[in-house]
Structure formats: C-alpha cells, structure tokens
Design brief:
This protein is of the alpha/beta class. The chain has nine helices and 14 strands. It has a six-stranded parallel sheet, with helices on both faces. A six-stranded antiparallel sheet has the order 9-14-11-12-13-10. Strand 5, helix 5 and strand 6 form a beta-alpha-beta unit. The longest helix is centred in the last third of the chain and has 35 residues. It starts with a strand and ends with a helix.
Length: 323
C-alpha cells in the first residue's frame, strides 16, 4: 500500500480512483465494510482503491480535551493495508484545514488531485467546514460532476450498532469480548518496554514488561486482563494489570504485563498486547504476600481462558478443514 502524507504528493490523477473518506478510528467491522466495497469497485474498474483519513483526529484539534482513540495512526495504517487498499492519503489536520469547504475538498482534492470516479461513504458521514459535505450534498455533486456515490448502511452485530463510540464505551467498561465482536479482532495496546520499579520479579515473583500511557491514549477499565503478547513476531499468553499500583501507594498509570513461560530481556523493545478478557478490578492489598497470592489465582484463571480459546480455535479450524 502506498502511503501519502501530503495532498501535494499526488502529482496526477490516479487510475480510475475509487475513494472512501473517514476517521476510521479502530478500523472496526463497519469501516472494513467500506474498504471491501471500495476495493471491489476498484477491481471492477481495473482502478485504484483509495482511503482518505486525517491525522491527528479532527476532534483532537477542534474539541477541548480532544478524544481518546481506539487506534493510533500507525495501527490504523497497518489495518487499512490489511484490508487491501492501494493508496492511503493521511491528511494533516489543522485548525486552518478545518476551514476547508466541502466544495473545495471535492473540486480540488477528490476530483482535481485524485481524479475520483467513485465515492463510498458510511451512512452518517459528513465533512468540510460546518460538516456541510453530507450525503445529500455528495450525491448532488456526483450528479453534477460525474462521479457515483455509494452509501454503506449501518453495520450491526446482533442488536449492537458497530461504531467507534460504542467500542469506546465497551472498553471503558472492560468488556473486551463484546469489543472484539465489533472490532473483528482483539483490542490492542502497544509500545516500548520501559524500566519500572523492578518489584515484579524480585519482590512479588511475577516479572512484568511495563508500558506507559500517553495523555491522548484511550485507557480501558483499570484492572487485570487475560492477554496475548506479541514480541519479536511470536505470541505468548499472559496477564496485564492496567492501573496505578495502589498496594505500593503510587499514582503513575502503567500497564504491567506478566508474560507466561518467558525470560528474555526486552527492555526498550516494542511489544503489542491484545486484551482478551477482564478478570478483576484493581484494588489495594494488605501487602506483597496477599498481592502475590492473588496474582497466582489470576494466572491460573488466565491460563484456563487461553487453553479454552486454543481448544475452540482447533475445533473451528478442524470443522472448516473437514467441511
């Protein structure tokens, strides 16, 4: 996938460009439907599938306090590439860019720069100054200027609307199972392993890989989760505690991951942690002994969850193979 970070880098119309536009926070099942539609249209036209997004998220610029994101820009790019998109345009969003009118965006960027032939948008999409670039506007522009507009309807999983807002709420509640159903994958945090107090191994008996949260990061419900840890291309089981270490009287918010059957030095290395299932809320213990005993129980529960998931995956794979 070609990644373009400035509109000016597109120096000529793309071949039969089929375009979708959005913030795509989380790249959930609804977004994936948009990408599938765009890719299919581009394939029929022997053309180019294009996804346009913005960085930072417009609400991080326009709304005081911003917005907590399900996925950062790096994750978003990875997920869009996996969806089979040919070109991703990441438009730098500023207060000045926010003044861009919908008409200018259509004429100068979508048609003038990209050469768009077809546009695919979600059922509630709007863009441009005062969000004037809504679906009726786009359909009228298409009729006048010769491009088609396809509107993808809302996606539901059971009776749940698939939306970034709904997923943020589920993460705040610690409901990783439901969040996974709407995302189409596990919720993931990532970062470089930091040096901590090094109590995990020496005092408690459970060494941890520590990640710090940035101010703009979405922090799920504080507590302990069953996790999968991806390090150096390998996946390990584990548990992760997201919290402030009340037993030790601290206040710094960290994510501490104990990786099962693992003894490598990974300080400074990047890791990815999938949050699979909430186990319990964070709480203050009377001392190290009580904390260690609870972590032992957490580990036992997490191993059972991971074993059951492996069993279900094996059964599912066997059923597919034999069908």
């Amino acid at each position: 996938m070609r990644i373009v970070r400035k509109v000016e880098e597109i120096d000529g119309p793309l071949v039969n460009a089929c375009v979708t536009i959005g913030n795509f926070d989380g790249v959930h099942l609804g977004h994936q439907q948009l990408f599938a539609e765009v890719a299919a249209k581009a394939n029929r036209l022997n053309g180019t599938s294009v996804a346009i997004t913005f960085d930072p998220h417009p609400l991080q610029i326009l709304r005081p306090g911003g917005i907590k994101l399900i996925s950062n820009c790096e994750q978003k790019i990875e997920l869009v590439e996996m969806a089979g998109i040919d070109v991703m345009l990441v438009v730098p969003f500023t207060k000045e860019f926010a003044k861009t009118t919908a008409e200018y965006f259509v004429d100068e960027i979508l048609l003038g720069r990209i050469g768009m032939k077809e546009l695919v948008v979600g059922y509630d999409y709007a863009f441009g100054k005062n969000r004037s670039g809504n679906i009726p506007f786009l359909k009228k522009q298409g009729e006048e200027k010769g491009f088609s507009v396809t509107v993808v309807e809302a996606q539901y999983v059971g009776d749940l609307l698939v939306s970034s807002t709904r997923i943020r709420k589920l993460l705040a509640e610690g409901d990783m199972v439901e969040a996974r159903r709407l995302l189409g994958r596990s919720y993931q945090i990532r970062g470089e392993v930091q040096y901590g107090k090094q109590r995990g191994g020496k005092q408690i008996g459970f060494p941890t890989a520590n990640l710090r949260f940035a101010k703009e990061d979405l922090v799920p419900r504080l507590g302990v989760y069953v996790s999968q840890v991806i390090c150096d291309g390998k996946c390990y089981g584990g548990i992760i505690n997201i919290g402030r270490n009340p037993t030790f009287g601290e206040d710094l918010l960290v994510a501490e991951t104990h990786i099962f059957d693992f003894n490598q030095d990974i300080y400074g290395k990047p890791i990815k942690v999938n949050l699979l299932e909430f186990i319990r809320s964070e709480r203050k213990f009377n001392g190290v002994k009580d904390l260690a005993e609870q972590i032992s129980r957490d580990v036992m529960q997490a191993r059972q969850v991971l074993a059951q998931q492996s069993k279900e995956l094996a059964i599912s794979s066997s059923d597919k193979f034999n069908s």
